[in-house]
Design a protein that fits this description.
With about 180 residues, the protein is mainly beta. The chain is built from 1 helix and 13 strands, in the order ββαβββββββββββ. It has 2 domains: about 30 residues, no CATH class; about 140 residues, Tumour Suppressor Smad4 (Sandwich). Helix content is about 0%, strand content about 30%. A hairpin with a 2-residue loop joins strand 9 and strand 10. The termini are far apart.
């Protein structure tokens, strides 16, 4: 906010020139890479030999009705992770219960990339069966339309019910043998 409450500060994306809010980061959502590259990876050459590419993803709860859950990390380790209302009928190893009465059972699904490449992305979608979630699934303050599968980029804001989560990702390329 501008001092005096005049409103948010607008700026232009340095890549495409589209307007964006200063709090969005270095680029707009359109120009942001789908996966973030690590700045530094510390591996001994013997550790890296034969290493396959790896895509890692997490959600960080930043706003929630349950204060004790704020800051919780949700690892996106399985092929799909389901965000669901705590105490709902849906359970399983990749179901993450969230204490939010404004969420639906199986509210949203996040899927890992099928192929692990630098251009692959985790995806987010609202519940499909038995129909869309009651309050919708939001990505960067935009409500996903029914059956929309949206790619996630590092730093994206996901809202389910009244819970806000930040998506974090990391792509580690395959090791190449040294010559």
């Amino acid at each position: 906010m501008i001092p005096g409450g005049a409103g948010p500060i607008d700026q232009s994306c340095p890549n495409c020139g589209q307007p964006m809010l200063a709090g969005w980061g270095a680029t707009c959502g359109r120009c942001k890479p789908k996966l973030a590259y690590p700045k530094t990876v510390m591996l001994a050459a013997s550790d890296a030999i034969g290493m396959m590419p790896l895509a890692l993803g997490w959600l960080v709860i930043t706003k929630t009705q349950a204060e004790l859950s704020r800051g919780q990390l949700i690892e996106l380790a399985g092929p799909e992770t389901v965000l669901s209302r705590s105490g709902g009928a849906v359970t399983g190893p990749h179901v993450v219960p969230i204490d939010d009465v404004f969420m639906s059972d199986s509210h949203a699904t996040i899927r890992r990339p099928a192929q692990i490449t630098a251009s692959a992305a985790f995806t987010l979608e609202d519940r499909r069966n038995p129909g869309p979630s009651k309050n919708g699934t939001w990505l960067n303050l935009r409500k996903l339309s029914p059956n929309e599968v949206a790619p996630l980029g590092d730093g994206d804001l996901v809202r389910v019910g009244t819970t806000d989560l930040i998506f974090r990702s990391l792509f580690l390329p395959a090791a190449t043998p040294s010559r």
